[in-house]
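Milestone 3.1: sequence recovery, worked example.
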């Protein structure tokens, strides 16, 4: 019986210290919130680039915006896998003072990452080769995804204060301005916040259609609301609406006006402008 009890207790994983548990818990919170803050930072950078051009009142990022996703997914998924393996395997970080690591009844090859014995851990040749390949693979993926990032910074449609639209490609090269007044149709609509918008709710916006079928869509979130807030944004949209005849204008989502007022936090004056925007 004594031999059986000794066998059952040998090579056990020592318990984590309170400090190590706290560190893992904090890292898990940062990892969970990381995608939110990274997306906010990416969105903020796009806005800084777009609005630094003189005369830009609104912008809509192109599909190259998504070049950021591979790096984001690598960080999030890689971090999640590493955290699950380390925390789940009870890998000590600074260690537990009550534990004599490497000594019976604890595992003989498990030591704190910031302990003096960490570098003395013996690993098999196959494990060393696997770790080396994994490091090279991760490094190559990070470098490749970092090289993609600049291609996702510049593609966008910009609405100018003279009511022309300029398209920028992935190399930040502008196209010839297209006049809003040359568009043949306008659709005013309520828009559900999706994608880069984390908070739920509704926005208002419009879509312009050219004679060749090209469309340009802008929502209230695409405008620089630091210049005049929703009042200035709605006034600009109403000026664009005034360029079209009643036959050229369609409205969608008029039943969401109350939701728009609540989501955007509009006051009485802004509410009146919003109702005028959706009036057919």
């Amino acid at each position: 019986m004594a031999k059986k009890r000794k066998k059952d207790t040998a090579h056990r994983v020592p318990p984590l210290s309170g400090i190590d548990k706290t560190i893992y818990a904090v890292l898990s919170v940062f990892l969970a919130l990381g995608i939110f803050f990274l997306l906010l930072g990416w969105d903020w950078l796009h806005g800084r680039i777009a609005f630094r051009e003189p005369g830009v009142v609104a912008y809509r990022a192109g599909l190259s915006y998504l070049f950021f996703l591979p790096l984001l997914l690598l960080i999030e998924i890689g971090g999640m896998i590493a955290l699950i393996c380390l925390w789940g395997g009870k890998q000590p970080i600074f260690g537990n003072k009550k534990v004599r690591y490497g000594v019976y009844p604890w595992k003989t090859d498990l030591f704190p990452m910031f302990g003096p014995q960490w570098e003395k851990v013996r690993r098999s040749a196959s494990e060393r080769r696997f770790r080396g390949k994994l490091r090279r693979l991760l490094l190559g993926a990070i470098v490749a995804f970092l090289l993609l990032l600049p291609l996702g910074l510049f593609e966008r449609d910009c609405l100018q204060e003279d009511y022309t639209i300029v398209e920028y490609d992935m190399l930040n090269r502008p196209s010839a301005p297209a006049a809003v007044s040359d568009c043949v149709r306008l659709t005013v609509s309520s828009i559900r916040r999706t994608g880069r918008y984390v908070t739920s709710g509704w926005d208002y916006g419009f879509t312009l259609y050219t004679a060749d079928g090209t469309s340009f869509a802008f929502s209230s979130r695409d405008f620089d609301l630091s210049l005049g807030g929703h009042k200035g944004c709605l006034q600009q949209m109403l000026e664009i609406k005034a360029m079209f005849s009643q036959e050229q204008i369609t409205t969608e989502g008029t039943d969401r006006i109350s939701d728009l007022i609540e989501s955007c936090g509009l006051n009485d004056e802004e509410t009146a402008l919003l109702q005028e925007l959706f009036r057919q």
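The helical segments are 2-9, 18-51, 69-88, 125-148, 229-241, 257-264, 268-278. The chain has seven helices and eight strands.
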